[in-house]
C-alpha cells in the first residue's frame, strides 16, 4: 500500500510539472452545464461533479456523485459513485464502474473495471482488459493477454496468459505458467495445473485429476 501511495504521489508531481491548465477547478451539473463549459478544457486541481462532467484532460482530484469523463489523459485520483471514464490513466480510479480505453497505469477499484492495456492492479467484481501486466483480483477476471496474476473467486480467463491463474475455474487458449483451481482448462499449456480436474486439450491424454503438466 505504501508503494502505491508513493507511486501516486510521484505521478501527481510529474503531472503538475508538465501541466498547462486552462482552469484550476471545475464544477459540473450535467455537461455542458458545467464551469468551464467547454469539453476541450484542461483542468488541473479539483473537479466536482453532481451528475456528469466532461473535459479534455484532468490532473488532480476528481470527485463525482454521478459520472466523470476525461476525453484524453487523466492523472490523479478519481472517485465517482457511478462511473469514471478516461482515454488513458496514470493514478487511481474508485467507482462503481471504471473504464480506461487505452493505457491504465495504476489502480482501478470498483464493481466493474476495464482497461485497454492495464499496468498495475484491477480489484473488483468483474475485471476485464485487452492486455494486463499486473494483477486482476475479483470474482471474474478476463484478459485477452495476461502477463501477471489473476485471482478469481469464480472464473479466470486469458486468451493468452503468462503467469498465474488462481481461482475456482481457470481457462486459457494458451497458458505458460501455473493454474490452480477446482477446474483448470487450457487448449495449450507450458506449465503446471493443480486442481480437482485438469485439462490440456491438445495433449493425447488430456485429462488428469489433481496434477497435470504441459510441455
Q: Bin the strand percentage.
A: over 45%
Q: What is the helix/strand order?
A: HEEEEEE
Please give the largest β-sheet.
6 strands, mixed
Kindly report how far apart the N and C termini lie: 37 Å
Rg on CA atoms, Å: 20 Å
| Number of DSSP-assigned strands | 6
Mean pLDDT: 89
Number of helices: 1
Give the proportion of residues in helices.
under 10%
Helix/strand class? mainly beta
Unreliable spans are 1-17
- Shape label: elongated
Structure description:
This protein has 215 residues and is mainly β. Helices cover 8% and strands 81% of the residues. The protein contains one helix and six strands; from the N terminus they run αββββββ. Strands 1, 2, 3, 4, 5 and 6 form a six-stranded mixed β-sheet that branches. A hairpin with a 6-residue loop joins β5 and β6. The longest helix has 17 residues, at 2-18.
